[in-house]
Amino acid sequence: MPFSAQPPASGERYALSASLDNARHLSSLLRAVHFQDHATCLATASGLRVTVEDAKCIQANAFIQAEIFQEFSVQEESVMFRISLSVLLDCLTIFGTSSVPGTSTALRMCYRGYGYPLTLFLEEGGVVTVCKINTQEPEELLDFDFCSTKVVNKIILQSEGLREAFAELDMTSEVLQITMSPDKPYFRLSTFGNAGSAHLDYPRDSDLIEAFHCNQTQTNRYKISLLKPSTKALALSCKVSIRTDAQGFLSLQYMIRNEDGQICFVEYYCCPDENITEAER
Amino acid sequence: MRFRAKIVDLACLNHFSRIINTIARLAKTCILRLTVCKLYFILSDKVANGGASMWCELSQGNFFDEFQLEGVAAEHNEIYLELVPENLSRALKTAQNAKAVKIKLTNKHCPCLRVAVELPSLSSSSRIVTHDIPVGVIPRRMWNDFREPSVPDFDVSIYLPVLKTMKSVVERMKNLSSVIVIEANLSGEMNLKIETDLVSVTTHFKDLGNPLWASEDGCQSSTQGRDLESMAEACIDIKKLQQLLAGQQVNPTKALCNIVRKRIVHFVLLHEEVSLQYFIPVIA
């Protein structure tokens, strides 16, 4: 362990205890879902899931598997708490955000259980920072009930194909319209802003499309202000899967490779703003 | 009263600009004291500044190629001007590639520091950009208000940690709290702490070293009989500390602070040609 000031070990049973050699493996993923101040953390034997919601229609989850950590132990079946994500990120990046090659911040995280703060020990270059962040009662989370059997349309794309499109979305449009179809236009992103409508079509045989499974023509609109934060996850990712179900609920799953080449996932779920079953040309 | 100066060397000019930028971060308005050998930037501890004060001193010979000064009177060969350092900083921004910068005290309609920046030009005649910075002339009777502050009778004197690390930590802490506790002991240990309802964060620095100060009788201050482990702490406005650190664009040769517990923190930052002292009092 890289710390000279070691956290108490013997005799203390922590509900959650984890170590990470490079805190950026956690902080960069959390930034990809940081569109609200508060987040709900769920720790199970498989790892850590951090959930952020807004307006009861969008939910983002960041998954950091137990294997990413050097040490990860959860005492009960699961441990759940609500915490300020802004404060957590400020603490995780206390030594700065720039990634100077060769230097990294080591992290140890401890949580005693309900009512206790989340304690972080961060170390870089011999300097140790201890943070105690108050936790709150977890709130009920939305359940989009999105499972693979209910998926109507699915496209897997290389993220570079979508990055520019998302970065340049016409934010004067209230909605982002997504059309997915076995026929033309196959995959279309549309906005309707002050200057007019914009349509971006991806041909089915594009190199950027890794998998195309569209069974039904669907056109759905989503509030653009809710989806815009997903651009952060898109920027970090190498691949993205776009799926919709019969109600037009949208699932965006981002595959993210961290500095050490390990894979993590971030997903965004969004409710449709309007449901248009006829394809709009 | 006359003042004329000229900088021709680009490195000196850039260095001078960096110093002015640092001053501009620390004070909205300050006093510029001009003497034959030195320039001083002074901020006295009025309530308006939140009680912080500053004393920055540089030798004119290290920056200026020409320097002519005629003070208010023969026995008082100095000039005290009140100015907004940000104005001077902005004027010098146009001088990044200048051939020369001339500074002159003028009084056409009102007293001004005229900064004339000579820029390189393809034609035979130079391009000159002139900035007139309004200044207030401080009368002789008020000069006593701006004397060099004495080093306080401190409880602990300690070298600062690597400024880059200290800067990052304080910047993050500033997002979480408006005040910060700085504490240190005579064993080279310093802690920066913030505590709010939501979160508490403490950063521990070790092995910083404690400078030895020569006392008035010439002997070095002795640590005999003093408790080496006991911390002297002061709770100060975090924004002031962040501004001081953010203004340090180049690593100082020496950086230290003197803590008078529960009263004031005295920061001393020494570069080769310039010394800066900044006093931050505790939050009442």
TrEMBL record, chain A:
It comes from the Eukaryota. The keyword DNA repair applies. Pfam families: Rad1. GO terms for biological process: DNA damage checkpoint signaling; DNA repair. Keywords: DNA damage, DNA repair, Nucleus. Component of the 9-1-1 cell-cycle checkpoint response complex that plays a major role in DNA repair. The 9-1-1 complex is recruited to DNA lesion upon damage by the RAD17-replication factor C (RFC) clamp loader complex. Acts then as a sliding clamp platform on DNA for several proteins involved in long-patch base excision repair (LP-BER). This is Cell cycle checkpoint protein RAD1. It comes from Chloropsis hardwickii. The lineage of its organism: Eukaryota, Metazoa, Chordata, Craniata, Vertebrata. The gene is Rad1.
Automatic annotation (TrEMBL), chain B:
Keywords: Cytoplasm, DNA damage, Nucleus. InterPro entries: DNA_clamp_sf, HUS1, HUS1/Mec3. Its main location: cytoplasm. Component of the toroidal 9-1-1 (RAD9-RAD1-HUS1) complex, composed of RAD9A, RAD1 and HUS1. The 9-1-1 complex associates with LIG1, POLB, FEN1, RAD17, HDAC1, RPA1 and RPA2. The 9-1-1 complex associates with the RAD17-RFC complex. HUS1 interacts with POLB, HDAC1, FEN1, PCNA and RAD9B. HUS1 does not interact with RAD17. Interacts with DNAJC7. This is Checkpoint protein HUS1. It holds the Pfam family Hus1. One of its GO terms (cellular component) is site of double-strand break. Component of the 9-1-1 cell-cycle checkpoint response complex that plays a major role in DNA repair. The 9-1-1 complex is recruited to DNA lesion upon damage by the RAD17-replication factor C (RFC) clamp loader complex. Acts then as a sliding clamp platform on DNA for several proteins involved in long-patch base excision repair (LP-BER). It comes from Chloropsis hardwickii. PANTHER family: CHECKPOINT PROTEIN (PTHR12900:SF0), MITOTIC AND DNA DAMAGE CHECKPOINT PROTEIN HUS1 (PTHR12900). It is found in: Cytoplasm, Cytosol; Nucleus. The keyword Zinc-finger does not apply. Belongs to the HUS1 family. One of its GO terms (biological process) is double-strand break repair via homologous recombination.
